[in-house]
Design goal:
Elements: E1 7-11, E2 17-22, H1 23-31, E3 35-46, E4 51-60, H2 75-81, E5 96-100, E6 115-119, H3 120-126, H4 131-134, H5 153-159
Parallel strand pairs: 1-4
Antiparallel strand pairs: 1-2, 3-4, 5-6
Helix pairs in contact: 2-5
Length: 182
């Protein structure tokens, strides 16, 4: 059953997104009476005795208190923040790397403000030189995201592509969107 691997957005009782789970987990939560289904998809899941329209968004009946998550610096988080787009030439694709804007040999640190998504071609051309030396300009200044989603940053950015989920996921323009240079 391929439909059981479909993603389902889980909201807290106050409609705050707290998780993305698979269909199998969501059906278990529905069966146990722990969630209300807010939106369903067109897929019908059958068991031996019942048929259930697959949920897309569910809301917990009882509020769950969670500690504020920490946004970890990782390759996947940098790719998600930059919209899987090279911050020098605008290329999108699978051949992306991470680049230090200020090279480490010049004192550049490995942090949110110095790492950007970069294609292999630009990374090879830039090497360990400064932006001025190679004539590159950034599409957008790198910065630590101000808002921290409870779901992982990569799943949050991917979830923004789901039309139904957009109503429940806060919109912050700098997540996964590249500003075009003037």
């Amino acid at each position: 059953m391929q439909g059981l691997n479909q993603d389902v957005l889980v909201l807290n009782s106050d409609y705050e997104p707290i998780n993305i789970c698979n269909m199998r987990r969501a059906i278990g939560l529905i069966y146990l009476g722990k969630v209300d289904v807010l939106h369903s998809d067109s897929i019908t899941v059958h068991s031996a005795t019942t048929a259930l329209v697959s949920p897309s968004v569910v809301r917990l009946k009882y509020h769950i208190r969670r500690p504020m998550p920490r946004l970890r610096l990782s390759r996947r988080s940098i790719f998600a923040r930059d919209g899987y787009t090279c911050q020098y030439c605008g290329h999108t694709g699978k051949d992306l790397t991470i680049d230090h804007v200020i090279p480490r040999r010049l004192g550049g640190r490995t942090d949110w403000e110095n790492l950007v998504c970069c294609c292999r071609k630009c990374n090879t051309k830039k090497g360990d030189k400064s932006l001025q030396q190679v004539g590159f300009a950034l599409a957008r200044l790198p910065r630590r995201p101000k808002w921290i989603p409870f779901v992982s940053l990569t799943k949050f950015v991917d979830g923004r592509q789901n039309k139904v989920w957009r109503d429940y996921l806060p919109h912050f323009g700098h997540f996964g969107e590249t500003a075009k240079p003037d």
